[in-house]
Amino acid sequence: MSNSEYQHYYVPEQSPWPIVGAVALFFIAVGSGLTVMQQAKEGGQGHWLLFIGLAILIYMLVGWFRNVISESNQGLYSKQMDKSFRQGMSWFIFSEVMFFMAFFGALFYARMISVPWLGGASNNAMTQEVLWPTFTAMWPLVTTPAGGTTQAMGWEGLPLINTIILLTSSVTISFAHSAMEKDQRGRLKAFLGLTILLGVSFLTLQVEEYIHAYQELGLTLQSGVYGNTFFMLTGFHGLHVTLGTILLVVVWLRILKGHLDSKQHFAFQAAAWYWHFVDVVWLGLFVFVYVL
Fold first, then answer.
1. Which of 264-277 are b and which e, b meaning 16 or more Cβ less than 10 Å from the residue's Cβ?
2. Out of 151-160, 183-192, 232-241, which region has the weakest mean confidence (pLDDT)?
3. Which of 24, 46, 76 is the endpoint of a domain?
4. Which domain CATH number covers 41?
5. Does one domain contain both 205 and 61?
């Protein structure tokens, strides 16, 4: 690498946004936990902590995005900085892959090891007699140790529709990327806007699915290991879809303002990478959580 590229490497000033984001995530984590534990009680304050955390997070995102966009428009970023952005986004997506692998691992452990053992497999008949004599090894588990019952969420209906929506959004974001590389601004705005609408539609239908699960199927976070893994995997995925939609909205607004072009558009490319990652994770969820 030439000396000139080293000389033009931009080092931003110290930023308050990482610590602000950490505070926001702390409030969100504590507020979410308290909200779940207090959902059946009156007078719980957990939801207020959750709202405070979300407000701080939005404030942080707006401020941080504004700073980065301003630096980019001023031409402060060099080719070396662009490589740093690409490496950073690649490692971030890799960390998210490992994040979901841990949850898929918990699902497979419960299904392939814990449930068969409780059913007496691998010479564990005594374990079944001691822990749960009436237990039947099956998945999904529709009976909890406390005697509660639930129903499994089928793959037809809303889950299948949401799968089609996300697969379609993966196609539209690819069309938008092609339009970006060809400087076709009209097609770019249309396909990216359509991708955002599909993302919002997915989240709306997921909320309806959760309402259906709680009110009609009796499938809740208290529904044993099946309910825990179901909401853990689908809920975190929904959170990532929300984040991906926010990224796409920010990029779309920048494009409407005339930012980004065929030569410099890594902000769009990073959002597209993340969206494809979200789509692939959902395919795994649909197969292993809903179908099998």
1. ebbbbbbbbbbbbb
2. 151-160
3. 76
4. 1.10.287.70
5. no
Query: Does the residue 242 lie in any domain?
Result: yes
Q: What's the Cα-to-Cα distance from 193 to each of 138, 199, 251, 252, rounded to whole Å?
A: 44, 10, 10, 7
Q: How far is CA 87 from the centre of its chain?
A: 20
In a domain, 273, yes or no: yes
Q: List, for residues 275-286, the tens digit of each pLDDT value.
A: 999 999 999 999
Query: Nearest-CA neighbor of 80 among 14, 3, 18, 181?
Result: 3
| Residue range 216-248, pLDDT digits in tens | 888 888 788 888 889 999 999 999 999 999 999
Same domain, 197 and 180: yes
Distance CA 165, CA 278 (A): 12
**Lookup: tokens for 208:** 């309806």
Q: Rounded to the nearest 10 degrees, what angle do helices 266-285 and 158-181 cross at? A: 160
SS3 string, 164-221, reads HHHHHHHHHHHHHHHHHHCCCHHHHHHHHHHHHHHHHHHHHHHHHHHHHHHHHHCCCC
Q: Which of 115, 171, 174, 105 is nearest to 140 (CA)?
A: 115
